[in-house]
């Protein structure tokens, strides 16, 4: 059970990093404009 918890935790930073990468890529396209949830959903 302890290993399962550890693997659940290790999944979080990876998906969060991907999320940040998406936001970064959108903001580059928008020339630094604010990134909305709608923009993220288009990916």
Automatic annotation (TrEMBL):
<protein>
    <submittedName>
        <fullName>Uncharacterized protein</fullName>
    </submittedName>
</protein>
